[in-house]
Amino acid sequence: MGKLNKLISVLLLAMILFMLSSCDYLSPKSNIENETEVSGDATHSVAVGFSQTGNQVGWRLAQTTSIVGEGEARGYKIVYTDAQEDTEKQITDVEEILKEGVDYLIFDPREYEASAAALQKAKDAKVPVIVVDRAVRGTPGVDYVTLIAPDFSWEAEQVANWLKRAKGGKAKIVEITGTLGSSAMIDRQKGFGQVVDSEPGMEIIASENGNFIRSEAQKAMEKIIQTKPGQFDTIFVHNDDMAIGVLQALKSAGIMPGKDVMVIGIDGQKEAVQAIIDGEMACTVTCSPYYGPIVFDTIEKLIKGEFVEENIIMQNYIIDINNAKEELDKAF
Predict the structure, then answer these.
(1) This prediction's pTM
(2) Domains assigned to the chain
(3) Around Cβ 133, how many Cβ atoms within 10 Å?
(4) From first to last of its 332 residues, what are the pLDDT tens digits of the chain?
(5) Contact of 254 with 282, CB cutoff 8 Å
């Protein structure tokens, strides 16, 4: 019987070890020698990677500062990369982050389809991924843990409905879109278009890509001014940084924003809020870049083994002349 009991014990131990080695990649990683506990806001010895798409606009800079700053303040080791608006570089960046042996990856995907390759690399490495800002092709709970993002379609619907009320359902609209292939561009175009299509008096007469970058939006607007002179009265811009570029193009052409044409945007950027106060922009809807606290609250839930929702929506709201002054100090 002694030998039988010993054999049973060995078999049980082997089964336990097999079960542990077969755990889903989304389970938080645990190294017994370096295992740490969350104490207040400090979680030491946990490495977190952050793959950013780029830092060419104010929104991205604010997001990077929020995430990196929050992680460092809580005692995490942060491994950070900037893809410089290059999808292939971002996939390579993720490979480099994973080589550092991170425990979690924060991933802001540049494109919906192409960026999915980075998810697979993290999955192969059994590193849990928190997707932020933009969506990426994949299944939450399988290819990544959760998506923390605004509802881009809702944002654009709010701006379009505001425009419909302001213009009495009649508008000839120019659209300046964001990065082609990104979920932000796709959903904002879709949400805005659904409202416009439901109103016979509203029409998008031209659409140009500005890649979410001010200088590119300015060039796109200059092109439309030349090709569609006097044919539009409204400009919908997919983010506020581009909206500032649009304002510059209009004024250079002798077109007075706020008088000759109405400019509306998305993000809640400080320059845009000031432009609303100054009468040059009509409205914007907020899209907070301050991801740090919610991202690291989510990581700490994973460390503790707590439930995390598969989709966490960032809440936003309209800013126009009625609340712009009180919102200015809150803007990034």
Answers:
(1) 0.84
(2) 41-148+289-313 (3.40.50.2300), 152-288+319-330 (3.40.50.2300)
(3) 25
(4) 444 344 444 444 444 333 333 334 343 333 222 233 333 444 458 999 999 999 989 999 999 999 999 999 999 999 999 999 999 999 999 999 999 999 999 999 999 999 999 999 999 999 999 999 999 999 999 999 999 999 999 999 999 999 999 999 999 999 999 999 999 999 999 999 999 999 999 999 999 999 999 999 999 999 999 999 999 999 999 999 999 999 999 999 999 999 999 999 999 999 999 999 999 999 999 999 999 999 999 999 999 999 999 999 999 999 999 999 999 999 99
(5) no
User: How would you class 20 by CB atoms within 10 Å of its CB: exposed for 0-12, middle for 13-18, buried for 19 or more?
Assistant: exposed
- Residue matched to tokens 């899209």: 287
| Cβ atoms of residues 128 and 301 within 8 Å | no
Q: How many CA atoms lie within 13 A of 115 on its CB side?
A: 28
Tokens of 262: 């109405």
Look up residue 146 and give its DSSP letter: E
Which pair of structure tokens corresponds to residue 115? 């960026």
* H helical segments located in 142-267: 152-167, 183-197, 214-227, 240-252
Burial of 226: CB neighbours in 10 Å, binned 0-12, 13-18, 19+: exposed
